[in-house]
Amino acid sequence: MTTRISTNEIYYNTAIFFAKNILPSLPNDDRAWRKEYSDWLKEQGACIFADEVHPFIRTALGVAPGYDFFEFEKDSDATIFVLRWS
Fold first, then answer.
1. Which residue spans within the chain are E strands per DSSP?
2. How many CB atoms lie within 10 A of CB 58?
3. Cβ atoms of 26 and 36 closer than 8 Å
4. What pTM was estimated for this model as a whole?
5. Which of 10, 37, 42, 68 could form a disulfide bond with 61, CB atoms 3.0-4.6 angstroms apart?
């Protein structure tokens, strides 16, 4: 069973950290940013669960804040993620 957390406020906190600490070392290409952000989330046990039915505008990191979810296989990963990024 998976756990889903809204991408509302927590997404912005992760995006700020990502922009300050990881983005400067990447090429100026949003496809590279999306892949690296996705890989970075996987290291924390998370992935983006996207609503593919509705055509939302997504950020350069590939997220529609407030509509997509962070998804976790383990509850413990979700708990740590929320504590770290809230």
1. 3-6, 46-49, 69-72
2. 16
3. yes
4. 0.91
5. 37
**pLDDT 10s digit of each residue in the chain, 86 long?**
799 999 989 999 999 999 999 999 999 998 999 999 999 999 999 999 997 787 889 999 999 999 999 999 999 999 999 999 99
Strands across the sheet containing 69-72: 3-6, 69-72, 46-49
Q: What pLDDT was estimated at residue 51?
A: 76
Q: How many CA atoms, within 13 angstroms, populate the side-chain half-sphere of residue 62?
A: 18
Largest CA distance in the chain: 37
φ/ψ of residue 4, rounded to 5 = -120, 140
Nearest residue to 86 via CA among 13, 28, 18, 22: 13
